[in-house]
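It would be a great kindness if you could assist me with a short task in structural biology. The matter concerns a single protein, recorded as an amino acid sequence and a row of backbone structure tokens. Kindly check, if you would, that the fold set down in the tokens agrees with what the sequence suggests. Thank you for your consideration; the sequence and its tokens are set out here:
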Amino acid sequence: MHLIVEIIRKNATVDWNKRDDVKAKLRLLVRKVLTKIWLSI
């Protein structure tokens, strides 16, 4: 979980014009991390 929080903090932005792009990027990164964790179990 710490890895996911770290990714969100690094990629979070306050620029409302890029909000949808950032949300999509964060969803993709979190999905990759969760998949990696799930596969390593």
